[in-house]
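Proteins fold reproducibly. Take a tokenised chain:

. . .
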Amino acid sequence: MNAPTKINLKLTDLFLILINLVPIWGVWVNDWSVKDIFLVYCMESVIMGAYNVLMMWSTTLFKRKDEWVSGNVSSMVSGYYFILFFIAHYGFFILIQLGLFISISKIGNLDFKDSFVLLFHIRSYLPNPTYQLLMLFIISYGIIVLKDFFIPGLYKTASLGSLMFSPYARVFVQQFCLLLGGLLFVFSLGKIFIILFVIIKIFFEVGLKFLIKWDLSKIR
């Protein structure tokens, strides 16, 4: 009989778990707006994308070029090609996610096509407690990138192709959860959404990190 797979939690994993529990505390104890938390989670995808661009840029400065594979054909292309492709492709998913959020939540006077307005004026739509939560997510991912990517020197050996696609699996899970949360939100079950979302989020980010996590150790 095979021994069960052992998952060793790192300090950054425990840090992520604690941060992900903050929204539950805020909504259930401090009566934070579920809509605001919903928006913070949408912006979390933006945060991940921005840090991913930073990592790809640092690797590009060091390696200059990397292998681009298209079908059975591969060629060496500039790292900036990877970066531009990622910004365009990943940005499309972000805009769709924000558009869906706007449509579901009816935030302000915005509609589906106003994703850029929400993205570039986020401070106007978040009160202090949830804006501080957003800042906490930004700082936490910054710490993870610094500890797991820059300090070990992974920018010297990272595959730009792997880096480019590393956030997608996690974002797909997040978008599914946000759509589910949107349905619960419509039926005034937003507080239930927060609990379900955080549980699922922790499960995929930490419990199944060897499969789907934005795991910086897998980008060599």
